[in-house]
Write a structure and sequence with these properties.
alpha/beta; six-stranded mixed beta sheet; about 25% helix
Length: about 230
């Protein structure tokens, strides 16, 4: 199974990305927020339709720059809004939480780190409680905000601006993979314990993350791909 993660679309198409999807037999696209640039919401359906033309499933969460109504727009476009939710897909379990910790810009999708921590903790704890002893499973946490003090939340001047509310439950539950975004310049792969954390950067810059999962063993590779 092949899963692609993208982030920070900001209302701009990338035709090379659609071409990549059509040429590489991708099963699922995970969208880590900021689909729009403070709107308009009409772009969501336009964007999702382009993805569906590539014969993929799509799950998405909002970013801090997406306006109120974004989850309804995602659903109306025929996609799953994974914000504050979890779902099984093949031999993966994917959990999602959108928005970001506070920024200097007072954007629509901001919330406190305490609230992010409580919400992400509950998602990871819910899966941990359910458990799965019958077959190998890959756990993916999809967030817009990156975990604090990592390669994926670092501004060019070296300041770390990610979310403690994302980082703390990752430490506690160790999901296999965290896909995030938000900090456009921080395209990188890092580790928090056993968790692989990846920020593929803005879609328009021509990168995505590819997760290639063995259907039988659930062994996986995580790579940032240039298209």
């Amino acid at each position: 199974m092949k899963i692609v993660g993208i982030t920070d679309i900001h209302g701009e198409h990338n035709e090379d990305f659609y071409k990549y999807l059509k040429e590489n037999d991708i099963d699922l696209v995970l969208v880590a927020g900021d689909i729009t640039d403070f709107g308009p919401l009409d772009f969501v359906k336009e964007f999702m339709d382009k993805l569906y033309d590539c014969d993929v499933e799509v799950f998405a969460i909002p970013g801090n720059c997406d306006p109120a109504g974004i989850c309804n727009a995602i659903r109306d476009a025929g996609s799953l809004c994974l914000h504050n939710n979890l779902i099984g897909f093949g031999n993966t379990v994917i959990m999602g939480y959108g928005g970001s910790n506070p920024t200097p810009f007072n954007t629509p999708g901001e919330t406190s780190d305490d609230h992010i921590y409580e919400s992400v903790y509950e998602l990871l704890a819910e899966y941990d409680y359910i458990g799965n002893d019958t077959k190998p499973t890959v756990t993916i946490l999809l967030t817009h905000a990156p975990p604090y003090n990592t390669k994926v939340d670092e501004l060019p001047d070296g300041t770390h601006v990610g979310s403690q509310g994302v980082k703390k439950p990752i430490h506690e539950f160790q999901p296999n993979i965290n896909i995030c975004g938000h900090i456009h310049e921080a395209r990188a792969i890092d580790k928090i314990g056993e968790t692989t954390v990846v920020n593929p950067g803005m879609l328009k810059d021509g990168h995505c993350v590819l997760i290639d999962i063995d259907d039988e063993t659930a062994e996986y590779d995580v790579n940032i791909i240039e298209f």
